[in-house]
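Dear Dr. H.,

I hope your travels went smoothly. While you were away I took the liberty of generating a structure for the chain from your last submission, since the lab meeting agenda had it listed for discussion. I wanted you to have the full record in hand beforehand rather than looking at slides cold. The sequence, exactly as received, is reproduced here:
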Amino acid sequence: MEDEKEEPQSAVTSFTERWRKTKAHWNSYPYVWASYFVVFGGLGVYSAYRWKALRKVEDELLRFQDKLRNTMTMEELEQAVKDSQAGKF
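The corresponding predicted structure, in token form, is as follows:
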């Protein structure tokens, strides 16, 4: 009773065997694979759309923050000028 150990397959052999099985499954059940493409493709398109919308909102928010920061800086400068002019008289 000798223990027979399987020799490890090379990466190319393993990949080729897996590809052959997947191709056979593809040919046997094309509707399953088509549903995968529809579902996951739809999720990909929806995710890309939402990501783009999120980036657009983020850009608008950053522009608004810059505008608000500039407005606050100008108001502070105006107040400092008024305070310095009021102190002279």
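Two observations you may find useful: The chain is about 85% helix and 0% strand. The chain has a mean pLDDT of 90.

With kind regards,
E. W.
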